[in-house]
Amino acid sequence: MKKATILLLCAATQAVAHPGMGRVMAEIQARDDFVLGARSGSLLGDLLSGVLTAVGQVIKDILQLGTGAIDPGSGGSYTPPGKLGSSACNSDTLCVWYYVASQMWGDFADAGGCTDLGRGAIRQGFHDAAAWDVNSAYGGADGSLLLSDELSRSENRGLEEIGALTKTYYSTYHPYGAGMADIIQLGAIVGTVACPGGPRIRAFSGRKDNSRAAPTGKLPLPAMDAPTLIDLFVKKTFTASDLVALVGAHTAAKQRFVDPSRAGASLDTDPQIWDASFYSETLTGDNKTTFILHSDKALATYSVTQGQWKTFAGSSGQSLWSPVSVVSLYEW
Ligand code: HEM
């Protein structure tokens, strides 16, 4: 059985026996995860059935073996067999995605690295996927962020521009088979690699779109403290270690709505590149040169997560962080 599932069952049982114990159990598990350097190998849905397609098997191996036997990155190249809409292109599954990714690259990368739209695309992928947890019957990476009215929710402020652009991608490429959920997740991957240093990540397509707005209350908020954030992510099958790695995506981030008087302030000094300096700057920064979210500072200084945060902030942080983040990003 999945580790996170066991944890949740454990926590639920204890909570019934002793009200308030659920949080304690989650914290103990999270601390163990840190000590062991563990990341979640949780499987969900079809992946649990044991009857897998070839792609399902690859995804399962990546999730469970990490950077071992199956490389979560991609090293291949691809030449489309024809123009978009040609019969040669229509009969090749990858072809439409070549055109989607090419247009995204033009929008998400410039001479300096990733653009505002590229950074927005990374956050957008997270906000579509993370509006879900193991107790949700729907939600997740299903395109509902842009197929419903979710974008008007306060936690999604700042995604208006990338959301509008992504809807134009959908209008252009949906007639050739590209779904909204896949476009959004591909955008997060292209946005990441558009930031120099950003890992090149395999993209999978085939998600099912849903126009039903995702359940509320599943996304993290900047005012949350560390235990609340850890609980929130454990319910999404991420360990505390995974969370520390994932939130490093704030290496490519600006804020506009947490403090509108400092709109455009970045969360590290070089938001156009993908490096580990976000960790050290959050740990030691004065919240003037860069903007430090309360939630990031909380994770940087909380007993369970501060050790790993400091490791990523250290001199070998870049090499240690990148492989972890590649794997974690996969689990959305
Ligand atoms: C602890 C959990 C997290 C919290 C509380 C949080 C919160 C925030 C907030 C408040 C902003 C600024 C929004 C604005 O005012 O415009 C932001 C930006 C951003 N976040 Fe997070 N976030 C979290 C985790 C993540 C994760 C896991 C990812 C991706 C894997 C991510 C990716 C981004 C990106 C790329 C931006 C920059 C967007 C831009 O520059 O337009 N965040 N986040």
From TrEMBL:
Cofactor: Ca(2+); heme b
Site note Transition state stabilizer, residues: 123
Keyword Protease part of the UniProt annotation: no
Broad EC category: oxidoreductase
Every Plant heme peroxidase family profile domain range: 140-281
A Pfam family assignment: peroxidase
Cofactor binding: number and manner: Binds 2 calcium ions per subunit. Binds 1 heme b (iron(II)-protoporphyrin IX) group per subunit.
Residues noted as binding Ca(2+) 1 in the record, renumbered to the chain: 128, 140, 142, 144
Residues noted as binding heme b in the record, renumbered to the chain: 250
Protein's GO biological process: cellular response to oxidative stress; hydrogen peroxide catabolic process; response to reactive oxygen species
Gene3D superfamilies xref list: 1.10.520.10, Peroxidase, domain 2
Signal peptide: 1-17
Disulphide bonds in the chain: 114-195
Entry EC number(s): 1.11.1.-
Molecular function terms, GO-annotated: heme binding; metal ion binding; peroxidase activity
Binding of Ca(2+) 2, residues: 251, 268, 275
Keywords: Calcium, Disulfide bond, Glycoprotein, Heme, Iron, Metal-binding, Oxidoreductase, Peroxidase, Signal
Active site: 127 (proton acceptor)
Record bears the keyword Cytoplasm: no
Family: Belongs to the peroxidase family. Ligninase subfamily.
Protein name: Peroxidase
Protein source organism: Xylaria hypoxylon
